[in-house]
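Researcher: Next sequence.
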Amino acid sequence: MTVALDRSRRAAARRRYLPMQILLGFLVVYFLIPFWWVIVNSSKTAAGLFGGGSALWFADVVDYVGNFSQLFTFQDGIYLRWLGNSALYAFVGGLGATVLAVAAGYGFAKYRFAGRQLSFAILLGSVMVPTTALVIPTFILFAELGITNTIWAVILPTLLNPFGVYLMHVYARDAVPDELLDAGRVDGASEFRIFVQVALPMLRPAIVTVLLLSIVASWNNYFLPLAMLSDNRLFPVTVGIGLWQGIASANNAGGTSLWSIIILGSLVSVIPLVIAFLTLQRYWQGGLSIGSLK
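Model: Next structure:
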């Protein structure tokens, strides 16, 4: 009787969750199709791309090696330089944004000072401002300072991450007990030592989450470097591929079809982000889930 009752409950549970499982399956397919398209078409030559075959399956000739060779040798291998620029902007900008977000979020959560509520309200309001709306004013400011067309014109704006500050504030408020900080103060520890040795280890999931989000935002940044930079040797990979796309659309590549290396370059550019998410997923998933429950 008990076994039959358990089977009935499990069957009812499967029927209850079936619509959600179908929806999730549809979303998985929906999000994987573009990635599959890039994997397939990055293997094709120009003839394979425009020969009329299926866009979601391989052509008769699979030429990853040739496309890789052309990708890293075209225009004296400038694609590798663009990858290096993207890594520099993402690492320095993401790390700097994380350090500032951790310090500011911890300060808002654990200290009481004049203007704290007003400052935090302004911070929350700035989360709602799209970053693209700030690009032109930032360009005018940097032009007056004479730092446009330099790496700092890309790195400095990415150091500001209001959402990261908010996430750190929410996490630090509940993950770091005030009693533990007070115990450190009674023992004579300085505020900096309490922050480094007591608070930071507890904030690790949120730190990794903010770091990953900041790095991804910097890596995928397109409009800011497009407006700030004019030297193609300083371009990140996003703007560089956009430059190649413009050349290919105008047929100005001197008889060379660039579409194969544009697609392959797009595929190569997302591999570092995929590796970062897979290796650090146990940290950032915990940080996101805890932050969402507060």
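Model: The mean pLDDT is 88. The radius of gyration is 25 Å.
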